[in-house]
Specification:
By secondary structure, the protein is α+β, with helices and mostly antiparallel strands. Helix content is 24%, strand content 33%. The two termini are 28 Å apart.
Length: 70
């Protein structure tokens, strides 16, 4: 999930799995696979960085804490 800001400052959360395209028009436009389109304040590079960070966290898996604190 990506936490982003619409042009009016409203925060939205977008499911990365349904993002079809990113465009710079010059605002950043995110089009979902169902055709819904959002304009956001973040640049394409910022959205990509958030997407990469999200995928890294997912692929890393859960953090397991044992009784001995390790």
């Amino acid at each position: 999930m990506l936490r982003l800001s619409r042009l009016n400052g409203q925060e939205i959360v977008v499911n990365l799995e349904v993002v079809a395209t990113l465009e710079s028009t010059p605002d950043t436009a995110i089009t979902l696979t169902n055709g819904v389109r959002y304009l956001v304040r973040e640049t394409i590079d910022e959205v990509l960085a958030k997407a990469v960070d999200y995928r890294r966290r997912i692929l890393a898996g859960p953090v397991v804490v044992t009784d001995d604190g390790v």
